[in-house]
């Protein structure tokens, strides 16, 4: 497991560590859980991506699919925050929740531009949209 292995490092050092991790993966056939808030780093290192919001997986799929065809509004918001990215996705609105998630409704609904009344009723479940790509949103397609 690698939890934020390149956070707060100089870009040149980040690159060296990422290259080393890639070489280890390829030469030893390793599988790793790579945790990061840096979408560009995740896109470089990962074959599959799980996007989490408030402790719940909201999108899961092949890295290329999640990056090029994000389905969940939070994934879209994350990608819109990447400098230089041309995603066409708007950043989320609303207030960032600081209290514990009660488990009622969608945890992203206070910030979601697509939220509907159904989003307050129950937490969404991951739904496969094809090719191993899933997302947990009742209104986003």
What does this structure look like?
The protein is α+β, with helices and mostly antiparallel strands and 141 residues long. It has 2 domains: 1-46, no CATH class; 49-97 and 104-141, no CATH class. It has 4 helices and 6 strands, in the order βαβαββααββ. The strands form 2 sheets. Strands 3-4-6-5 form a 4-stranded antiparallel beta sheet. Strands 1-2 form a two-stranded parallel ribbon. Helix 1 (11-28) links the parallel strand 1 and strand 2 (34-35). The mean pLDDT is 86.
Cα-based radius of gyration, to the nearest Å = 16 Å
Q: Spans of 5+ residues with little confidence (pLDDT < 50)?
A: none
The helicity comes to 25-40%
Order of helices and strands: EHEHEEHHEE
Please give the alpha-carbon distance between the first and last residues.
32 Å
Overall 3D form: elongated
Largest sheet: 4 strands, antiparallel
Task: Return the structural class.
Answer: alpha+beta
- Order of strands, widest sheet: 3-4-6-5
Count of individual domains: 2
The total of beta strands comes to 6
């Amino acid at each position: 497991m690698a939890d934020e292995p390149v956070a707060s490092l100089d870009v040149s050092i980040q690159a060296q560590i990422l290259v080393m991790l890639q070489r280890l993966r390829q030469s030893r056939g390793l599988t790793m859980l790579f945790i990061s808030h840096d979408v560009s780093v995740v896109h470089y290192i990962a074959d599959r991506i799980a996007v989490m919001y408030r402790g719940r997986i909201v999108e899961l799929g092949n890295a290329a699919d999640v990056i090029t065809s994000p389905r969940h509004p939070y994934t879209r918001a994350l990608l819109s925050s990447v400098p230089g990215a041309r995603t066409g996705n708007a950043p989320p609105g609303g207030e960032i929740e600081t209290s514990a998630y009660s488990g009622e409704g969608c945890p992203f609904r206070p910030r979601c531009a697509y939220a509907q009344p159904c989003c307050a009723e129950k937490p969404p479940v991951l739904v496969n949209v094809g090719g191993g790509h899933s997302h947990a949103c009742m209104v986003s397609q």
